[in-house]
Every structure is written in structure tokens, then in C-alpha cells.
Design brief:
Length: 505
């Protein structure tokens, strides 16, 4: 068998291709950003063709730089920004519209109407999700209703939908020349269209959004010994490699962090933050503003479920300091700037740019910086931005403890923001528990590789994957309990100030 497994990690701001060996060590990587298209307030789009072009380029570049070829890869996995919706013509391969990104809020009226009409509780019961702009179903409905000719094309079988995993799987396996139209259970569980119990598209849910079933991909396991398909020899890998792993990014990080037992949890710090806790084969329905979602499904084994707390804006708040305010020139500078002061100077920054996700689910909220005085500097704002990442994670951790009945004892962390040591120390202080970072911090790609490798016997069991996990760094809490609770009380006051800023019908 070949010595390595490859993984495409198609994220919100960039796409990377990573190559791993049997020990889960990174052998090669290449990454490219793509454009963030912001047509108007609250709208966020990507160009699907650019995403595919960047994906092909990072695959070729990573293989070339590692001096490897397709024959060196035992399998290929994909992980992706989950709820970002693409609708395209399968005969031509051309998208009908830009990809509508998970952060986009244009579907707030669709979500509000579902609640008003009494359909919200049905969606929560069947799909485990609240009606929200976050998920794919409303985005598909918006495209069907607002892009000329798409509904008619869908009825003719000439318009199909996929999150970006499906879009890339289709292109990698032939595109308009016979590409496979599939997704996995984790991505399907982010649409408001899949029934958590049957693991299939639900006719009643489809009727709520007016979506023809023939638009939707086939739902397959996250790790599939039967293979989704093979890459084309004419494609970016230059040879036939079995595509056997597909996981939404946060579920992939859960697998990469080897959270295979009920009660194990991880927090990923990327564009947003996502705290997931494994609940085993039991569907735990949240009463505290969390999501019930698929964790993974390996072959014919029973599906594993998770509770999830999704936070829309964390790492992207640091990007906002860079791109919109210009007070830093790179994300790494946020740490140095924040270290210039010992505390936040009394200010709190709630980055509710797209409303608030878990545990509040307030689409009427908008970002706010509160507590300002002339004393405050850009260093205080940088520190408040890092604290906002950590306080939002505490909001979710508290809700998870109520739902699951178990307090987090150690928080496993991964993702780009974990390179910021000040932020991770703040997380330990604000939560009051140790924070643990693995040697391989990019666990999203690693999880996709694990899913792909398990399907072809590159790894035999999840015990092998557990043996690969090693801690690189641990941060212990240093704040007193009084300091922790005073800071959190200020945060809760600041969050309340963001509510009701925009009117939602």
C-alpha cells in the first residue's frame, strides 16, 4: 500500500492540501486564500470556480514540493466549510450563482417565516437545528426564488446543489463528464433537510423550502470503504486515487482530535469557533441553544452524534482588525499589540457581524464595542478582540454542561488561532480549565485523512489514531474565581447591548 494519505481542507478563507504519513505527521502542505465577496451588508459569497481552481493548484503544488505523485497516496479525503451552498448546472459545470457562505444573513426572512408558521419545532425535532440563516436549506431556497431560470432548471434536472465538499467531489471525479454527486452524513446534517434518525433527506423538510429532491446529492458514510469515486488521471493529482473520506470541517477536527468516546470534546478556532462534544450513538436534543448534529459515520458502523456550539465570528474578528481597521498588518500582530496592555481597559467587543449564533441565535444582533473612554487604545481593542473569542467559547461551554450534564475538565483546541499563546492563556483563564493543544494543530485536514485512510485499511482501527495524538502545549488557568466571574459578567452585559439592533420580519 502507498505510504501516505492526502486531504483537501476547503475552508472559509482558504483552501489547503495536506499529506500525512501513518503516524499522522504532516509530510507536505500548500495553501491559498480565495476572495471574500461582500455585495452588500450581511451578504457573503465565494466564487465556486475560483475555489475549484485553487483546490487543483494546492494539490499539484503540495505534491510537487513533497516530490510525490498520485501513486504515493493510498486515499484522498475532503473536509469543507459546511453550510456554504453551491447550485450548478451538471451538464456544463457552471454555477448559477456565487456560493452563498455560511456567514451570510440574507435568508433571515426565510428563517423567521419558518418560526412564524410553526415549522421551527419540526425542523428542530427532525434535523436537530433551529431555523437560521446559518444553514444551507434557506440558501438553496433563496437561489431558487431569486436567480432567473434556476427553479425551472432544477425541475428539469439541470440544477444541482452541494456544499463545497460535494462541489469538489464532483469536479475531482470528472465534473460534467460523469462526476459523482454525493455528500456525507455530517454535511447533510447542516442543511435543515436531513432527518437525524433516518440519515436521509426528509420530504416534509424539503417541502418547507420548496426544494426538489433531485437537486440533492446522495448521502454516504463519512468514511466509505465502497469509495465515492476515483480522481481522474487528467485531474490535479495526475492519477487515480480513491476518494473515501468526507467530513464537514468541525466534525473532521473532532475525528482529528480523536474524540471517539462519549463526553470527549474539542474546540476549533478558525473563522468562527466550533465546540463539539461526542454524545455517542444517542441523539441528545439541546435545551440550551446548541445544535444536534452528526459527528461521523464510519462505513457500516452506527452513526455517532455530537452536540455543537457554533460561533460565527472569532478569527475573522482578528481579520477585521487587519482588513477593515488597519490597526495590524497580519493576524500574528494581534498578540503583540494586545500584550502592550495588562487588561481590556474596561472595553468589550462583541463581534456579532452576522448576528449571534450559539447559544443565543439572535439574527437581530450586530457588532458592538462597549465601555469606551478616551483612555482606551488600539491595544485595548486588540485584547478585547482576543477575549471575545474566549468569552464566546465560555458561553457555549456553559450551555453544553447544562445539556450534557458534564463539565469540561480539559479543553482540546486546534485551528489557526491556537498559535496565539496569549489568546490560549486567556481561554484557560476565562473557562477556568486547562487548555491542551496537540502537536498537529491542523486537525481538520488530519481528520479527513483519518476518515479516508480507515476506509482503505491504511489505518485499521481508531485505536491507532489515538496512539498518534500527542500534546504539544498546555495552558493552566491563572485568574482567581472573582476575576473570572467579574469579567464574564461584563461580557454578558455587553452581549445584551447587541440585541435588537436590526429589525427582522
Amino acid at each position: 500500500m502507498a505510504d501516505f494519505v492526502g486531504a483537501v481542507d476547503q475552508g472559509t478563507t482558504s483552501t489547503r492540501f495536506m499529506i500525512f504519513d501513518h503516524g499522522g505527521n504532516e509530510i507536505g502542505k500548500h495553501q491559498l486564500e480565495h476572495e471574500q465577496i461582500l455585495p452588500q451588508a450581511g451578504w457573503v459569497e465565494h466564487n465556486p470556480l475560483e475555489i475549484w481552481e485553487r483546490t487543483a493548484l494546492v494539490i499539484r503544488t503540495a505534491l510537487n514540493e513533497a516530490n510525490l505523485a498520485s501513486v504515493d497516496l493510498a486515499a484522498l479525503g475532503i473536509t469543507n466549510q459546511r453550510e456554504t451552498a453551491v447550485v450548478w448546472n451538471p451538464r456544463t459545470g457552471r454555477p448559477y450563482y456565487n456560493a452563498i457562505v455560511w456567514q451570510d444573513t440574507r435568508t433571515d426572512r426565510i428563517a423567521s417565516a419558518l418560526e412564524r408558521e410553526g415549522k421551527g419545532d419540526v425542523i428542530r425535532q427532525k434535523a436537530g437545528l433551529p431555523p437560521a440563516t446559518y444553514f444551507s436549506g434557506g440558501k438553496i431556497q433563496w437561489i431558487l426564488e431569486n436567480v432567473d431560470g434556476v427553479r425551472e432548471a432544477a425541475e428539469r434536472g439541470e440544477a444541482v446543489f452541494g456544499n463545497t465538499d460535494t462541489w469538489l467531489l464532483w469536479n475531482l471525479t470528472g465534473g460534467a463528464e460523469g462526476g459523482v454527486h454525493v455528500t456525507d452524513v455530517t454535511n447533510a446534517s447542516r442543511t435543515m433537510l436531513m432527518n437525524l434518525e433516518t440519515l436521509d433527506w426528509d420530504e416534509e423538510l424539503l417541502s418547507f423550502f420548496g426544494i426538489p429532491r433531485q437537486m440533492l446529492p446522495e448521502i454516504r458514510p463519512s468514511s466509505d470503504p465502497n469509495h465515492y469515486g476515483e480522481t481522474l488521471t487528467s485531474g490535479p493529482l495526475g492519477g487515480a486515487v480513491p476518494l473515501t473520506g468526507d467530513l464537514g470541517d468541525q466534525q473532521a477536527a473532532t475525528v482529528g482530535q480523536v474524540c471517539f468516546a462519549p463526553g470527549e470534546s474539542k474546540n476549533t478556532y478558525g473563522t468562527g469557533n466550533f465546540l463539539l462534544e461526542n454524545t455517542g450513538t444517542e441523539i441528545v436534543r439541546s435545551k440550551n441553544g446548541l445544535l444536534t448534529t452528526l459527528g461521523y459515520k464510519f462505513g457500516d458502523e452506527p452513526a455517532v452524534y455530537c452536540l455543537e456550539g457554533s460561533i460565527a465570528v472569532t478569527g475573522s474578528a482578528v481579520q477585521w482588525l487587519r482588513d477593515q481597521l488597519g490597526i495590524i498588518s497580519g493576524a500574528a500582530e494581534s498578540e503583540a499589540l494586545a500584550r502592550q496592555v495588562n487588561d481590556n481597559g474596561g472595553i468589550y467587543f462583541v463581534p456579532a457581524f452576522s448576528g449571534l449564533f450559539a447559544p443565543y441565535w439572535r439574527s437581530d444582533a450586530r457588532g458592538a464595542i462597549v465601555g469606551l473612554s478616551r483612555f482606551n487604545t488600539n491595544a485595548h481593542l486588540a485584547r478585547a478582540t482576543l477575549e471575545a473569542i474566549c468569552y464566546q467559547s465560555r458561553d457555549v461551554a456553559e450551555a453544553m454542561a447544562k445539556d450534557a450534564g458534564v463539565e469540561i475538565s480539559v479543553l482540546k483546541v486546534d485551528g489557526g488561532v491556537t498559535a496565539n499563546e496569549l489568546c490560549m492563556q486567556m481561554q484557560a483563564d476565562i473557562l477556568g480549565v486547562p487548555v491542551s493543544k496537540p502537536v498537529v494543530a491542523e486537525t481538520t485536514a488530519l481528520g479527513a485523512a483519518y476518515a479516508a485512510g480507515l476506509a482503505v485499511g491504511f489505518w485499521q482501527t481508531t485505536d491507532e489514531l489515538r496512539a498518534n495524538w500527542n500534546e504539544e502545549r498546555r495552558w493552566e488557568p491563572t485568574w482567581s474565581e472573582d476575576q473570572r466571574e467579574a469579567g464574564y459578567a461584563g461580557w454578558k452585559k455587553a452581549v445584551e447591548r447587541t440585541f435588537g439592533w436590526v429589525d427582522v420580519d
